[in-house]
Amino acid sequence: AFSPFSHLSLTTTHMAFLKAPPHVSWPSCPRQSCVLLPLRKRPLRLKLVGCTASSSSKVGNVGEVVGNVNSVVVPANVLVPSVSSQYTYTLNGLNSAANSDVVGVAVRAVQLAWAAACTLSNKTLDEWQGMQDDPARVQVRATQLREVATSLGPTFIKLAQFLANRPDVVRADYMDELMKLQDDVPPFSHDVAMQILKEDLNIKSLDEIFVPPFPTKPIAAASIGVVYRAMMHAPNDDSEPVEVAVKIQRPNLRSTILRDLWLFRYGAVRWLDGASRARLGCEASVVVDEFGRSLLRELDFNAEARSLAAFQANFEHDGEVVIPSLPFPQCNSPRVLIMSWVDGVRLTEVAAVRDAAIDVDRFISTGVRAGMTQLLEYGLFHGDPHPGNVFAMRDNGIAYIDFGNVSELSKEDQSALLDALIGCMNEDYVRLTKALQELGFLSDDEEVRQRVSDALRRVWIEVAGQGRFDAGALAEDFSFRKITDQFSKLMYDYPLRVPERFAIIIRTLLTQEGICMQLDPKFRFLNVAYPHVARMLLTDKLYTRRLADVLVKSPNAAADDDDDDVNAIAPGELDWARLWQLIGFARSGAGGGIFSLLPTMLKGAWAVFSDAWLLGRLVKAAALSAVNSVARGLRRILHGRGRRRGQQHDALTPAPA
């Protein structure tokens, strides 16, 4: 019973003394909510880190883990597990890698300089000929850029994928071409892959643990590694073999990537930081750091295994979302990951999905619900759900694979994201701009905020076709691709940047929308997503307080075209039309029936009546709405009488000669 000396939103940290020499591990100590970490002081003192119940913010690397904690069971609703120290992005790590291979760095610098010179010369030639915006020429240059990235290796393939989802950095017309690198990457040598597999499993022959013959070709290849489909002997000889997916990392990947990242950062600090600060409001080296941190995390397959376990825990009771299991966790290593095989229909094969008699509407609804749940409820979401990483199950469920790119949102980010959505719904662009500032999209400058607020209003109206966020025109016209294109143009006129975690969210939403539109060309993301958001607002205690923000008209809301009308509601009033709209969306999300909506309404009523602040604000807004309704009724009566008297006067007045 001792007090913690450090408080974080994820953990509390205590200091204690253990009666054991430094070389002894404590295998019974690591738990779901407790890990021992050395303080690096003498005598041997250890940090005792315990997870709090909320588990809602980012994980930090605070020391070296004592003993083997890779087998720790991940509790539900956790965020991205920390990676081992060799896969942690640090400036010291980059400098050390560069100093240990000076010749390799110099050769690589010459290679990159030549590739950059060729690319820039093509750009200069296009500008000199006035062809920089010609669609055919742009397509040629985008294809050349993709081919250059492929030839330069894994780092540049990942960089191209990264930039393909950064509308603040790359033109929109290059995005589609660069996204082809998600599935179109050549594999590496099969013999080398088998050598890595044997080394990490500590076996002399694959037949020791795999049912022969082991396949000679991978079924998939990506920038990080290749995947084989194989049969594995069960630990119990009486059991049937287990079908598995064996993921093997490309050779010498870490050293190659660290060398490239050092060159990236050196170039950013030396030549690009000043221009980037003026253009984006942040240094280019910060963007490099975000990219490097994300990329190095993907190299640790043990961290991917823990991310997979976290997803399993989150969706354990969801029968429509399938996450592969880890049947042989003792066989996993930083370079080898063995997962259960998922027998579904890959979404790259749209015709096969239809041939499998899968209910497309139900599958799409399940996929959107799973995405919204990851984003707004768990805060842990799949960062790369492209068609090769998502399967349609024959029971209309959805399956995810490849958890190397998993990202997190803190509760603060989730709250600000919901603020941004509410700002759009209420046409409150001041609130929307403030939310974007809290999320890291723009700096804290009053003049900039006002300019961006006005620009966002213009962009939103252009994308929506009208300002109203309702179930009609906006839902039909709205697409994330369209708003991303407009936001991309905005990036070139204002000091806006997209933080890495939200670049991944943008990519996730764009990819999900593209998948759904391939399956159903009439798909509109908002029509499917908003019912789930409405149900969360009505039932989730984390969001029910935001009902007041949704249902009470904001004083910052944009003026309606009919604000001079006697029927226009005033700021502070309860917007009854919005309430019926919210209930209607929740009803459609529940299946359309009144009885299926009843549990949602009961939970919503309980949430309102059990929260005195929320109940008080809604009652106050309803009372103001009632008083103003009476006043508006009287004004309508007086307005009608005045108009009739004017008509009578006009009728009695003789026309001028």
Description:
There is one protein chain. The radius of gyration is 29 Å and the shape is globular. The strands form four sheets. Strands 1-2-4-3 form a four-stranded antiparallel sheet, with no helix packed on it. Strands 5-6-7-9 form a four-stranded antiparallel sheet. Strands 8-13-12-10 form a four-stranded mixed sheet. About 11% of the residues have low confidence. The relative contact order is 0.07. It is of the alpha+beta class and 657 residues long. The chain contains 22 helices and 14 strands.
The helix/strand class is alpha+beta
Tell me the radius of gyration.
Answer: 29 Å
Tell me the helix content: 40-55%
Which strand order spans the largest sheet, edge to edge or round the barrel? 1-2-4-3
Strand content: 5-15%
Outline type? globular
Query: Please, how many helices?
Result: 22
Largest sheet: 4 strands, antiparallel
Number of strands: 14
Low-confidence segments, given as residue ranges, are 5-10, 20-33, 38-80, 560-566
N/C terminus separation: 102 Å
Average of pLDDT: 76
Could you give the topology of this structure?
Elements: E1 6-7, E2 11-17, E3 34-38, E4 45-51, H1 91-99, H2 102-129, H3 135-152, H4 154-163, H5 172-179, H6 190-201, E5 220-221, E6 225-232, E7 242-249, H7 253-280, H8 284-299, H9 301-314, E8 321-322, E9 336-340, E10 345-346, H10 350-355, H11 360-378, E11 380-382, E12 390-392, E13 398-400, E14 406-408, H12 411-425, H13 429-438, H14 446-464, H15 473-477, H16 480-491, H17 500-519, H18 525-539, H19 547-551, H20 576-589, H21 594-609, H22 612-652
Parallel strand pairs: 8-13
Antiparallel strand pairs: 1-2, 2-4, 3-4, 5-6, 6-7, 7-9, 10-12, 11-14, 12-13
Helix pairs in contact: 1-7, 2-3, 3-4, 3-5, 7-8, 11-17, 11-18, 12-13, 13-14, 14-16, 18-20, 18-21
